[in-house]
Amino acid sequence: MTDAATLAPHGAEDTTELLRFATAGSVDDGKSTLIGRLLFDTKTLFEDQWESVTAVSAGRGDEYTDLALLTDGLRSEREQGITIDVAYRYFATPERKFIIADTPGHIQYTRNMVTGASTADLALILVDARKGLVEQSRRHAFLCSLLRVPHMVLCVNKMDLVDYDEAVFKQIEQEFSAFATKLDVPDLTVIPVSALKGDNVVTRSENLSWFEGPSLLHHLEKVHIASDRNLVDARFPVQHVIRPHSNDNHDYRGYAGQVASGVMKPGDEVMVLPSGFTTRIAAIETADGEVEEAFPPMSVTVRLEDELDVSRGDMLCRPGNQPRVSQDVDALVCWMDESKPLRLRGKYAVKHTTADVRAIVKDVQYQLDVNTLHRDESASELRLNEIGRVTLRTTKPLLCDDYRRNRATGGFIIIDESDNRTVGAGIIV
Do residues 215 and 202 touch, judged by C-beta distance below 8 A? Predict the structure, then answer.
């Protein structure tokens, strides 16, 4: 077994593209086993990891090495045979690097599902070929659509338990495709696999010779994600102002941060919000020196031609293409706090890009049932794992975009000021 890091030549510049994907599905659909199969078949394991899961499998009396144990990292999960938290795993092939978020299937862990999918380029939803689509399959698909995950893969797993029957696969494919038309799913691919046996996970399988599409890994390696990021709306939230204290650089002033969207180049005219002053970019710097352009998700330092009052939480944008500046924010919020619900008139801290503001809940418009899409307009609060539309009034204007257009500037988190815990996540609508 080899570690993924050995796949790249030592000292070579790493330009391999990174794909983040989240797995989801109902309980026992085989998410953890599928991820374990990907790690095992791509040889992205250490010897001690393999020895550990082999020993645990033998101790439980399993007749085979349970690959699900590679991702079920918590002791309580291993003992119960379930996944209750988001398990992040990394692996790589010569084609691409991957970060996997293995999210829970249980309805009571909706918040974990939202956390894992919020930064994903692709959502991988599993269904058991014997059971077909269930309520949780639809719920996870809706949540991924809500979070604007650009690509979705439906994996029809456990095909070995239905004798690799093409008719079973076709029925599930047609049913899910019909449901997906009600959602906003820009790219849907349906793939039959057997995670336990390895059929069509990394390599094509003779047992599924009737399937003309790619193996799962081949699709993950080839799916086009370069154009998913917003390269139109230039947004640069300022994270830190760099002012060296040495005499040699007493005139230096740089603004560090991560490009949220758009493309920025030296010479471009930019506007500083919320002040509204305009200037031009003098230079864009990285740890390796100056660059001719910056695009997401690059972390850079921007120097401006004019001395302006710019601080953390401000944003650079184009004068003719500005984000919305507003203190009243409508958002869909997923509530994550077990102890206290979100309530009308509740006061919280909000973190949006690099800005920290305080907010009060002006209105709870409705609570959304993610299974039926029914809106309960009589709701006045949101409890753990519930999703609803609320209106917040912030102490300072947010520099935001609609989440559909820009995930980076359209999302925020809600923090309980009393103990600094993250209690909610919101997407601006």
Answer: yes
CA 250 to chain centre: 41
At residue 240, the pLDDT reads 95
Specify whether the CB–CB gap between 367 and 387 falls below 8 A. Answer: yes
> Which CA distances in Å does 150 have to 121, 222, 251?
6, 14, 44
Got the DSSP string for 68-97? GGGT--SHHHHHHT---SPEEEEEE-SS-E
pLDDT tens-digit map of 185-226? 889 999 999 988 889 999 999 999 999 999 999 999 999 988
Query: pLDDT digit string (tens) for 102-142?
Result: 776 555 567 777 888 888 999 999 999 999 988 888 888 88
Q: Are 318 and 232 in contact (CB under 8 A)?
A: no
For position 88, what pLDDT does the model report? 79
- Give the chain's domains with CATH numbers: 4-222 (3.40.50.300), 235-317 (2.40.30.10), 324-428 (2.40.30.10)
Residue 30: closest CA among 139, 142, 125 = 125
**Beta-strand relationship, 87-92 and 355-368:** unpaired
φ, ψ dihedrals at 351, nearest 5°: -110, 115
pLDDT above 50: residue 81? no
Two tokens, residue 308:
């302006």
What's the DSSP call for residue 9?
A: P
Determine how β-strand 299-304 pairs with β-strand 315-317.
Answer: unpaired
DSSP element (H, E) containing 281: strand 277-286
Helix (H, G, I), strand (E, B) or coil at 368: strand
Q: Which amino acid is at 9?
A: P
354 beta partners: none
User: Tokens 């004019």 sit at which residue?
Assistant: 306
pLDDT at 103: 77
Confidence of residue 244 (pLDDT cuts 50, 70, 90): confident
Mean pLDDT of the chain: 85
Cβ atoms of 102 and 32 within 8 Å: the answer is yes
What values do phi and psi take at 52, rounded to 5? -65, -50
Angle between helices 166-180 and 135-146 (to 10 degrees): 40
* β-pair partners for 355: 352
